[in-house]
Structures are given as structure tokens and as C-alpha cells.
Amino acid sequence: MADILQYTFIQNALLAALLVSIITGIIGSLISVNKMTFLAGGIAHSSYGGIGLAIYLGLPIFLGASIFAIFSAVLIALISFKQRERVDIFIGLIWAVGMAIGIIFVDLTSGYNVDLMSYLFGSILAVNRDDLIFMFTLMVIVLLFIHLFYREILAVSYDSEYANLRGVKAKGFFVAILVLSALAVVVAIKVVGLILVIALMTIPTYIAELSSNSLYGMMIKASVLSTIFTISGLAISYEFDITSGASIILVSATFLILFLLFKKISTITSRF
Question: Is 0.85 surpassed by the pTM of this model?
Fold first, then answer.
């Protein structure tokens, strides 16, 4: 197995796994504590519109997907402020329209023959140098955001009304978290694909949440777990020649089931 590390595409894949795991571990934790999973799901699927637009215009995929995802995130945030009781309807609409736009632009692109399955289910082995630069830059931005505004994020995440009373701009942080979630979704698409991206951002964070006493600890544990799942899934996909994204999620789901079983057994045995 060690001999495959000599290949550049494997080295890139492992580095991408580490970078994306740190990003999704942190942002996934914020999504979880702020109960934004459905919102992040809407952003994830609407970003397909940016992928289609990028293909049509000949732009870098990350650029097109990022622009579309950020636009969707800001739109969802504005709708949440104005129509909170109806936000699920608008998210579903943005979700569907985004994917429809992506499909139409791909259809309109003459001579385009790339397998779109790589965007739906991920293609971590196809990560290149530009992708890694984008991932590294986003990781630095996310780490700086947490380092500079951790107390404010903590206040907004657990009691936004109290945070407002203390002078914290809760709406601004809500938008910032959604925008970073949008960018995290974009980089995670490269690893596990559009369809499975939310699983990568929620399974490790759910396990981390059940075993953490603080948001900071949850972020660290989620990042470590995500790294383990991603690298393990990558190794299995390479060994058995199966789709990497699906392999990563199945590893994550298997660990979650085992964790919950262990937790249940521990609870039962502790009663005796």
C-alpha cells in the first residue's frame, strides 16, 4: 500500500482529504449547533447551477460553483430574516432551480463530454494544484474567522437574542457562517460529490457533538474524525476500485452506527 504514495495524484488526494476535513469539521460544527443543515443542503444542491455555468463559460469549476453558492447563501439568509416561517419553501425552490440551471447550461455546452458523475459523487483522485491552493486558502480563512470571532460565534450559536443585547451583530455572523458553509460545500464537492456533501459535514460533527463539552472541542474532534473517514474511504476506494465519495460516506456511516451501538451498550451496562 505504501508504494502508491509515490504517485502525485495520491499525494494530492491525501492533502485534499486533510484540508477538506479541517474545513468541514469546523463549518459542519457551526452548521450543527446553528441548526442550518437544511439550509446548507439547499446551498449544496443549488451550487450545481454554478458548475453548469462554469462549464458553459469555460471558467474554473471552483470559481463558478463558489459564486453561485455564495449568491444562494446570501439569498437564503435574506429570506430567513424576512420570511422565517416560509424559508423551507424558498430553500426547496432555490435547490431545484439551481440544479435545473446547471443541467441546462451543461446541455447547451457543445462538445462537452466530461463525466458529470464526478461532480455528483466526487473525484478526490482528480484534485490538482489549483484545487489544493483554493482549499488551503479557504482553510486559512476559516481558521482565522474562528480565532478572531470565537466568542461572538459562540454567543450567536447558542443564544442569538442575548448576543444581540450584548451588541453582537447576530445577523452578520449568520450570513458569514452561511457564506463559509457555501464555500465549504464547494470544496467538499470535489471529495464526496454534490449528493453526499451534507453527509460528510454532518456525520463527523454529530459524533463529535455527542462526545464534546464545548464548541471548540467539537470542531477539533469533527475535523479529526473527518480526516480518518476520508483517508480510510480513499484507501478502500483505491483498493477495490470503487467511487471514492461513496466509500468515504459508507466508512463514516459505519463508524456512526458502531459508535451509537457502543454508546447504547455502555448505557445499558452502566445500569447494572
Answer: yes
